[in-house]
Amino acid sequence: MKSIYRLIKNTSLKAYSLIALAFVCCVLGLSACLQGFTTSASQVDEYYAALPPKPDFSYAEYEHKKIYFAQSTNVRHKLLFLIHGAPGAWFGYKDYLNDSLLLQKFKIVAADRFGYNRSDRKLATIDEQAKAFYELLKKYPDYEITVVGRSYGAAIAAKLAMDYPALVKKLFLISPACAPKLEKYWWFSKPVNTGLVKFFLPSYVNRASEEKFSHQEDLANLEKDWRKIHCPVVILQGGKDWIIDTQNGAYLDSMITEAPKQFIFLPENGHLLTEERKDLIKDLLLKP
Question: What angle, rounded to 10 degrees, do the helices at 152-163 and 126-137 form?
Answer without folding.
Answer: 60
